[in-house]
TrEMBL record, chain A:
It comes from Marinilabilia rubra. The keyword Transferase applies. PROSITE patterns: UPF0033. Pfam families: DsrE, TusA. Signal peptide: none annotated. Coiled coil: none annotated. It comes from the Bacteria. Residues 4-28 form the UPF0033 domain. This is Sulfurtransferase-like selenium metabolism protein YedF.
From TrEMBL, chain B:
This is Selenide, water dikinase. The lineage of its organism: Bacteria, Pseudomonadati, Bacteroidota, Bacteroidia, Marinilabiliales. Homodimer. It comes from Marinilabilia rubra. One of its GO terms (biological process) is selenocysteine biosynthetic process. One of its GO terms (molecular function) is ATP binding. GO terms for cellular component: cytoplasm.
Length: 206, 349
């Protein structure tokens, strides 16, 4: 296995050494990064996770052995030109680029009590899924799902902590006069909602 | 620049504002100190603002602040200029005018030539002159590596005070200087940065926030902070908490110094960026589409960084126009907005 020995080097050198070495191996190939400094090790773990290299660490006799896998790079040459940025980071598979939209406080049409039960069940189930959406957008009556002391807001908070962006329609919370009661999510305007919907790989309407 | 061979950067591992204590640990220690209470204290350490403010009378309040740090660059004169610009910045961030200053210098005459001592002070005084502040003396002790900064007193009308506690939902966030100073300085040590990109970074650090402060006062901006060692997100977090709001920051709109994005992407990320990221992480939501190196640049420790202003939407065009017309802030731009408070203090997009 290709090995990068960063012992004796202080940050940011170990990160640069690991990054350079990754350029030398093929996609999907494994590499080993060795560190003897706890701070460097922690920074390496954070940096390599960000790169999508799935670092797995082992500690032996004051040394850290980090095994990484070179991710597929789909966004090369992105510096300097924001237009060239790829919307899908290299560590995100195509099928997880989706957005969930809550149009109301209920799921589906029909009995309201049943609809409320269903939507609570949906977010509860979503928490346990591997394939999470990039965003959950809530508008019209859907914004009530984000209010304090609701079990849906607790599920949404857990999803937010897992990296799902929760978008709450600002016009809607003004209309319902519940601005002070929203506990979770980023309050947004229609331009941002329209942008997210346009960028999504696909959209799931509840 | 001074004409000598002294390389101050060789004396330190962490220079400039990246030499700050970890923000979380500092907050823990400060919380144990007895709280100062007085009816004329307008701003104390409670809101982690840039400086303390004390009202003398209905017309005048004094802004009292200090900053000092180890070398951020090789040249002693430039180090003096940067340290002074940084020390003055807190006064400008609060809408004030600097009045008086005292030098704080640690220097070992056994380790370094006395000419470097003189050059540091010359650089500092040149910036104080530019600011129109009077240096009244100071204090020097023997220590290695060198550390320099100033204690500064400024004045402001109590009704025109700008704090980090006045951000209102709907305001737009304007940043006046580009990010990436910590990255460039780290890259300089490793000889990875082009000379012109590095020089440009030095010029940004030497640039006073004077004009930015004047523009805030002119347009009635009520909330701002300066961006230094805790990085953009660290200082934004303190502002969000002090103002009881959430902030959205758009990484694609962040002004970034030449070459800094490329260096950050190559792993040239100083330790301070990771410390700052750990500090903000519990209060931060990062959208999945955010490029990781831009997230880290948003945490990059700045030395003598720019002003982060909260500007009402009807004033933002004029503020940006004035910043650019000054010829000093070509990269100033809107980087986000102030939101009603929800469970995360910062939404990074």
């Amino acid at each position: 296995m290709h090995t990068v020995d960063t012992k004796g080097h202080l940050c940011p050198e170990p990160l640069i050494m690991a990054r350079n070495a990754m350029k030398e191996v093929k996609e999907g190939e494994k590499m080993l990064v060795i560190s003897d400094n706890e701070t460097s090790y922690q920074n390496l773990m954070s940096f390599l996770s960000d790169l999508g290299a799935n670092p797995v660490a082992d500690q032996k006799e004051g040394q850290y052995f980090i095994e990484i896998t070179k991710p597929a790079e789909t966004s090369s040459g992105k510096e300097g030109n924001p237009e060239a940025y790829c919307n899908i980071p290299h560590n995100m598979p195509e099928d997880s680029n989706y957005v969930v939209v809550a149009r109301g406080a209920n799921m589906g049409e029909g009995d309201e009590e049943l609809g409320s039960l269903l939507i609570r069940g949906y977010f509860n189930a979503l928490k346990g899924m591997d394939n999470l959406p990039t965003h959950i957008i809530m508008y019209n009556g859907g914004v009530k799902l984000a209010l304090k002391d609701t079990d849906t807001s607790e599920s949404l908070a857990e999803l937010e902590d897992k990296g799902v962006s929760i978008i709450v329609c600002g016009t809607c919370i003004d209309y319902y006069q519940i601005k002070e009661k929203v506990s979770v999510g980023r309050i947004s305007n229609m331009y941002q909602i329209a942008t997210k919907l346009a960028e999504a790989g696909h959209v799931v309407y509840l | 620049m001074s004409n000598q061979e002294t390389d101050l950067l060789k004396t330190v591992e962490y220079g400039g504002c990246s030499a700050k204590l970890p923000p979380g640990e500092l907050a823990g220690i400060l919380s144990k100190l007895p709280k100062m209470q007085h009816p004329d204290i307008l701003v104390d350490i409670d809101t982690h603002d840039d400086a303390g403010v004390y009202k003398l009378n209905d017309e005048t309040a004094i802004i009292f602040t200090t900053d000092f740090f180890p070398p951020i660059c090789s040249d002693p004169y430039e180090f003096g200029e940067i340290a002074a610009a940084n020390a003055l910045s807190d006064v400008y961030a609060m809408g004030g005018n600097p009045l008086l200053a005292l030098n704080l210098l640690m220097f070992s005459s056994a380790e370094m030539p006395l000419s470097a001592f003189e050059q540091i002070l010359q650089g500092g005084h040149s910036k104080m002159q530019e600011a129109g502040a009077l240096v009244m003396g100071g204090h020097t002790i023997e220590d290695h590596s060198p550390k320099y900064g100033l204690a500064v007193v400024g004045t402001v009308h109590p009704d025109k005070l700008i704090t980090n506690a006045g951000a209102k939902p709907g305001d737009l966030l304007v940043l006046t200087k580009p990010l990436g100073l910590g990255v460039l300085v780290a890259a300089r040590r490793l000889k990875m940065v082009h000379e012109d990109a590095y020089r440009n970074g030095l010029e940004q650090m030497k640039l006073l926030n004077k004009r930015g402060g004047e523009i805030m006062v002119k347009h009635g901006v009520r909330s701002a902070t300066d961006v230094t060692g805790f990085g953009l997100l660290g200082h934004a977090l303190k502002m969000a908490e002090a103002s009881d709001v959430s902030l959205a920051v758009r990484t694609r709109d962040l002004p970034i110094l030449d070459q800094a994005a490329e260096l950050a992407n190559d792993g040239c990320l100083p330790g301070a960026s990771f410390r700052n990221f750990s500090f903000v992480q519990p209060s931060l939501h990062v959208e999945k589409l955010v490029e990781p190196h831009l997230k880290m640049l948003a945490c990059d420790a700045q030395t003598s960084g720019g002003l982060l202003m909260c500007v009402s939407p009807d004033k933002v065009d004029e503020v940006l126009f004035d910043l650019k017309a000054s010829g000093l802030h070509q990269q100033a731009c809107v980087i986000g907005e102030v939101l009603t408070r929800t469970r995360k203090s910062i939404y990074l997009e």
